[in-house]
Structure formats: structure tokens, C-alpha cells
Amino acid sequence: MRLRLRGGFAPLVAVLLAVGLLAGIAGCDSSSEVTLAVSPEEAEANPEPEPTAAIVTPPPPTASAVPTPAPLPPSTPEATATVAVTPEPTPTPDRAAEEFLASLAGDFQFLLAGEFEDLAEISEEWNPDAQISIAVVLPDETLYGYEPKESRISASAVKPLWAAAALEAAGVEAVRPLANAALILSDNLAGGHMIDLAGGVDAVNDWTWNVAELSDTRLEAWRFEDPNRVAGNFRPENPLGNRTTMADLALFFVRLYKGELLDAEETAVLQQWLLDTSHSLNSPRDLDGVLLDRLPRQVAESSLHKAGWLRPNCCPAEYRQMIDSGVIVLPDGSWFALAIMSARGEFFDLTNQWVALAACRVYAFVADDADLVCEREDDGVHDPEIWPEAGTGP
Asked: Among candidates 323, 72, 69, 336, which has minimal Cα distance to 217?
């Protein structure tokens, strides 16, 4: 029985999930820094959305309408050497999905909505200009979220989709040499080669929309090392056309974890590569383990994820963000998918703190773990020594 409720809650409105939104610009990852020039006109074209109530959506039919976003400005990141990874299948969950879903009946959706609202209030307190999105997707594809279907710049959070498309098109042995660099080190050059193996930008979009059935995720251009790596209907006037939603990212991870997107070998290797990503933060300036950093160690080490970010010294403040998404595996073997984003906050250290806190709070709620302490002593206090560029404007 779930008695914990932090803050007030709002009823959820059941809606059909039209699985879609739009995809993000180039990721400025730990191995690849990129400088993006964003004009005032581009900033005006991406107004801050009005806040909406948390929602819940039952398993949806597929959708097909896909807008046409925009291109990625050319950049030259640092290359990182690739390392082969030996795949091992993710352990099969021991607990039946039906039993897990049954345990979440009753007031679950209303209490989780209260958790989302409480997290939104914390974000507003720490980073008043921040935009946030949260999506929780259960094994039956029921969606719970706070603005989960808002279109967001995708950065490198969608590289697992490119890897999946490349695996289906080119096979395991062709993709393996790129896996460590593209997915674990989040290198942008290796990510571009993943796109090439998949057959190009249009082929990635075709796989995303027709195989993964994520109609609101779109790749417009990834021009690292190749200025011609663009969509067939590329629009050079808008550099913010790679987009996604937290709902799409979480749905991708659900379908991948259930083995619905690729054959058994391809599923196993991709899950293992995503399991090999960082499970914690080694320093306050680390970025690639945010989602799992505050979870119990056993849970973090059993979970798979991929982060994507646009950090200070990469982008103007209005485009800085952290996205992290993956599959969270509970100690009893049950699991759910989680995607969280915070963008446009003035203080990038607090952006990352909030994503880590939100992931921990959501996990503790779903797992009914009343003993897990998610808060840290320095939460909500900006430290200019961590990200000295943050808060200084474009």
C-alpha cells in the first residue's frame, strides 16, 4: 500500500498516446564539445511552453503524422577511439509483468501525479527558467508523465535508436566497433558512422517511425565530419530539427527491453552496450550517469540507459539541457522505463542535480521504497566552481 505523498496531487486525464514528437540537435558530450551559434530568431522560434498537468495514457495505437523539423549546424568535435564490447544478454526479469502491474493498481496514478507536481515545484525553486519533462512507461506501455509529449531537442539521447537501426541494416559485427565510442563515450563522430551504417538520415527516420513506431522523434541532420549527412527534405534555415519527446524515449526502451524491435542477438548486444554505460557520477562535472546516480547500487548496475546533453561552453543558455532515459530494473526483477529532461535552466549543476533527484524519487515511488533517501546535502545550492560557465548567458 502506497501512503507516501510529497505535495498535492492533480487527477490524471486518460488520453491515447499518439507516440510522437520531434528530435534534437548535436549532443555536446563528455568526449565531444561543440559550439552552436543560435540566433535571436531561432530562440524566438522555440518559445517556452505553458505548464500542463501531469498525464497518464493507456497503451496507444501507433501514430503516423510526422512534422518536418530542422538541421544541425556543422561542428567539429574531438574524435575518440572505438573499443569493442563483448555483449552479454540482460538477465530475464524474474517477476511476471502482470504481477508487477497489478501491484500498481488503485491510487498509483494519482499519487504519482502528486510526485510529479512536487518535483516540478523543486525545479521551479532551483532553476526558475527551466523546462522539465518526465515520462514513466510500464511494461504494458501505459504512460504516466509530466509534459511527456512536449517536443524537445534530442541531443545524443537518441543514439540508441541509431544503433538499433544500424544493427538491423548492417548486423552486429559491423556495428560493434562503433558501440563503445557512440553509446558509452557518446562520441559524435561515431554516432554519425552509426547513421551511415543504418543507410543514412532518411533510413534512420524510416526505422524510427515504422519499426520503433515513434512518430514524434526525428533526425534532421548530423553533420559531424560530413556536411551532407542530412534528411532528404533538409531545411537549412532552422538548426534545431533533431527532436524527440520523453514519451518516445521511454517507449523505445520498453520495446527494446521486451525484444520487440530487433532479433534476439541484436537485442542482447544493444542491451549490453546500454548496460555498460555509466551507473553513477564520479565528480560533479560528470554527465553520463545522472539518471542512475542516486538509485540503490544493485538497481543502478542492473539498469540500462543513455544520456544526452547540451552543456555550458557548448550552447547559449536557452538550449542547455540534460536528458537521460532507460530501463530501471527493480531488485525483484520487475522493471519500468523512465525518461527525464531539464532544459534552459540558468545553473547547469542544478539542472543535473534535479534530474538525478527526480529519477531517484520516481524510482522510490514505483518500487515503494520508503527507506531510500534521494536528497543530498548540497541540493539546490549553485556552485559556480562546478560549471563556471553556467549562469553567464550565451
From this structure: 69
